[in-house]
Amino acid sequence: MRLLAHNLMCSHVRGVKNGYPLGLAATEVRFLDEVAEKAIAEQMAEDSDASDGEYGLPEYNDDVMANIWPKVVYSVLHQAASALGHAEGLPPPKVAVSPSMGVDAATVASSSNPDLASLTEQERKTIYRILFYLDVVEGSLTCPESGRVFPIVKSIPNMLLDEDEV
Amino acid sequence: MSRPEFIAPPEVFYNNVEARKYTFNSRMLNIQTEMTERALELLNLPEDQVSLILDVGCGSGLSGETVADAGHIWVGFDISKDMLEVAQDRDTDGDLALADAGQGAFYRPGVFDGVISISAIQWLCNADKKHHRPERRMQRFFTTLYTSLKRGARAVLQFYPSDATQVERLTAAAMKAGFTGGVVVDYPNSSKRKKFYMCLFAGTADAQVPAGLRDDGTPQTVDAGDITFRRGAHRRIRSSDRPTKGSREWIMAKKELYRRRGVEVVNDSKYSGRRRRRL
């Protein structure tokens, strides 16, 4: 599960009023661009004629970033990245989310995102990489209100609820 | 053709073997691509813009591939673990989750620019587990879908209804959740090519439902939106608003009703609904 998905998801357990953001914990993470690069290198070693265009992931694109930025809550992204230990290079958020405290709507609104134009290109690229390429392979998501844990196995979060939680 | 929904629940039916069969069958692939392209057309997304799309019942990511080819970013969920594993083996661009549509979508309000679903929501009409209540599951699905959509965005859900009542049940649930829109039927005269697309609008009162495609390839403009519904169109009139039985308005309404039904009714005049003079 990539951090973009984590940024969009909230808990849907019955009775939960504010299921956002989900607490993120991971035992195994990977960068998808590194995985792809490795695959390309292997392919190149096997077959020198192979072009890398076919396997490469899409490059950083300002348009994509501009379109996706209003959908992302940066404070939550920053917190998730720090929880995974990959927050270096990310600009600090305007408002910080603390996992122990209750989260109010203003903190988790994308309106509190830093202005894209005010960020350096390097910072934008780092945010893009964290959003799209940082993949949680094994770990868990925790509902902030009910404490329900959704396991992530082989990069797929299991969001199935039990009979009494619907 | 046999219907998978009559055989087993989706997470059981689409096992490892069936998931691979489904994904690597070129006929399935063509149909899926065609339907996804049509769904994207019906979504009517703003051009030259990267949109965020939710794929309900994304399966092995066949539909997602078409979405990604169109330059959009997608996330999806499916109830079949094996299907999702196939999706991962194929290196899909979207983000996947294992979830049941009948338990509702689990996304922040107003994030999606559009929702698509290819051949999935007919499963909602079934009660595959003892505790399943199809009507409640449908309602939960549509209400959570409504909240996760941006205002004015659309959801296009292609489905295979087994009979007319399923169309009715699903549209009723969507309407209850606040959606407007209707069902677009493509190629209604062909048993094989006939496809149902539920075209739903979130937060727009009177959007025109697109016309279905006909056998000669041209969209028919008359019968646009083959089954249309509007929110509140059939809302019951409160008893206090209804004319008193026997009053002039009541008689006029009745006469109008019978005229519409084609029954011969005497002409209206200033004497209509008046008492006879006492002799």
Automatic annotation (TrEMBL), chain A:
InterPro entries hit by this protein: Trm112, Trm112-like
Superkingdom classification of source: Eukaryota
Gene3D superfamilies noted in UniProt: 2.20.25.10
One Gene Ontology MF term: protein heterodimerization activity
UniProt xrefs under SUPFAM superfamilies: Trm112p-like
GO terms classed as biological process: rRNA (guanine-N7)-methylation; tRNA methylation
Family (UniProt): Belongs to the TRM112 family.
Protein name: Uncharacterized protein
Source species of the chain: Fonticula alba
Lineage, opening ranks: Eukaryota, Rotosphaerida, Fonticulaceae, Fonticula
TrEMBL record, chain B:
Compartment(s) of residence: Cytoplasm; Nucleus
Keyword Cell division: no
A GO CC annotation given for this chain: cytoplasm
SUPFAM superfamilies, alphabetized: S-adenosyl-L-methionine-dependent methyltransferases
Ranges where the Methyltransferase type domain occurs: 54-155
Source domain of life: Eukaryota
Family: Belongs to the class I-like SAM-binding methyltransferase superfamily. BUD23/WBSCR22 family.
CDD domains documented for this protein: AdoMet_MTases
Keywords, alphabetical: Cytoplasm, Methyltransferase, Nucleus, S-adenosyl-L-methionine, Transferase
An individual GO BP term: rRNA (guanine-N7)-methylation
Pfam families listed in its UniProt record: Methyltransf_11, WBS_methylT
Organism placement in taxonomy: Eukaryota, Rotosphaerida, Fonticulaceae, Fonticula
Sample GO molecular function, one term: rRNA (guanine) methyltransferase activity
InterPro entries in the cross-refs: Bud23-like (IPR039769), Bud23_C (IPR022238), Methyltransf_11 (IPR013216), SAM-dependent_MTases_sf (IPR029063)
Record's protein name: Methyltransferase
Domain 18S rRNA (guanine(1575)-N(7))-methyltransferase Bud23 C-terminal: 200-277
